[in-house]
Amino acid sequence: MEGGGNRLLPADAFPLFQEGIGLVLSRWSALQLAVDNEWGGRDSRRKVELLCSDIFTWFTQNKETLYIDDLEMILDETMLSLNTQVDDGSIEEVAEKLIFMHEECVDGNFSSIGRLRQSPLPRGAHSHVSQAMSDEEEEEEEDDDDDDGDVGNGSDGMRNDMMVDAIQQQPRAVNQQPRPEASAPAEDGWVQVTSRRSSRGTRN
């Protein structure tokens, strides 16, 4: 999808456009959840400040045609740096809002920025946002669950079966086969799930 083309933003619109970028990102609940919880570390807020700067530079210094896919990649890379997994299409939505706002500002129209100023900040957790665990954290969680399984009582066995079934029902685990109820558990008790980084693929 093509974005704003090579139409340049007037210099006198720079401050308002910068403000608009900040307003859009401050109302992206997935991003704010990651910052508030410092999923990307103590410098999570600094990473968002750098994102604002990168977006502004991308729009104002790019002399060639702007493509929304490239903007989505910038947003996606920041979310990955914040160890945040987003599965609700909000990256595409935020990119579209930024493209639209840039087009308005090029034409001297700042109405969308005015509306953002009046709109409330997001509240509460986002059901489609989760913290991405590192490999070490995943291994630690596996070890903890393996220890629980050694107890051998009926309730623990049922809980482990439910956890495996829940993972198998996730849409990304398309290659997993259901385990027969009477069969023995897998050797390590876990099912491998494709990571979000590989699922998005490489953008052109």
UniProtKB/TrEMBL annotation:
Instruction: Name the domain of life.
Output: Eukaryota
One short Pfam family name for this protein?
WGG
InterPro entries in UniProt? Pre-rRNA_process_TSR2
Q: Which UniProt keywords apply?
A: rRNA processing
Instruction: Tell me the protein's name.
Output: Pre-rRNA-processing protein TSR2 homolog
The record's family statement is: Belongs to the TSR2 family.
Q: Where is the composition biased (Acidic residues)?
A: 134-150
Give me the stretches of Polar residues compositional bias: 167-178
Question: Which portions of the sequence form the region Disordered?
Answer: 117-204
Example GO biological process term? rRNA processing
